[in-house]
Amino acid sequence: MTGKPVEDRRIPPGQGHASGPNTTDKVVLTFDDCPKTLDDMKSTVTAIEALGVRVVLFPLGNCIAKGTFDVDFARQHGMFVYSHSVNHPQLTKISDAAILKQLKPPAVQGTWLRPPYGAANAHVASVVASAGMKIWLWDFDTEDWRGKPQDQLVSEVVQYSEPGDTVLMHMQWHGFNADAVAKMKQGLAARGIELCGLNGPATATGPFNC
Length: 210
Fold this sequence. Notes:
GO terms for molecular function: hydrolase activity, acting on carbon-nitrogen (but not peptide) bonds; metal ion binding. The chain has 210 residues and is of the alpha/beta class. The chain has a five-stranded parallel beta sheet. It has helices at 38-50, 61-66, 71-76, 96-102, 122-130, 150-160, 178-190, and strands spanning 28-33, 56-59, 80-81, 112-113, 134-135, 140-141, 166-170. Helix content is 31%, strand content 11%. The protein has one domain (17-190): TIM Barrel (Alpha-Beta Barrel), CATH 3.20.20.370. α6 (150-160) runs parallel beside α7. α1 (38-50) links the parallel β1 (28-33) and β2 (56-59). The chain is built from seven helices and seven strands. The longest helix is centred in the first third of the chain and has 13 residues, at 38-50.
């Protein structure tokens, strides 16, 4: 379950759209795809809020349509929510019209898009921009989808995250729970690094606050 070497799971500085709107030295934890259930999503979001932490959620439109993700609830509890497309196609392999369809409801409406698989290029970015959105990738990929246990994920996030990083995880795997986030917060704090905090409202198109 080790996956790629850490150096191969980072996007080098200055390449593409890695860090999105975070201009602070705080680490932003981001979670893609779908939570296991709506109850799991709500309890996790509420518990993360209680930690004073703000994460960014990129659910699929299909999750919203099926009722396993509540955009308004997450935003009301301090989490930014942006689009991950409707059903996770590779945007570099579909037509412009198909890309634009992936940005419409039930996909999340907002400023930022996390392209499925991180598949984006200048052309995809221009099509996305025509819909009033921008691409947000990541700096460090945990590869949690390999089924890594929680302790390993926490250890990697704490050890390898750098100030200002965007960290990639997924809602259906083992980092999306309050215990994991609390341990990440504690471990990073021991290195002098803060997680994104609850500073200002979390809206669809407003400024990104940490």
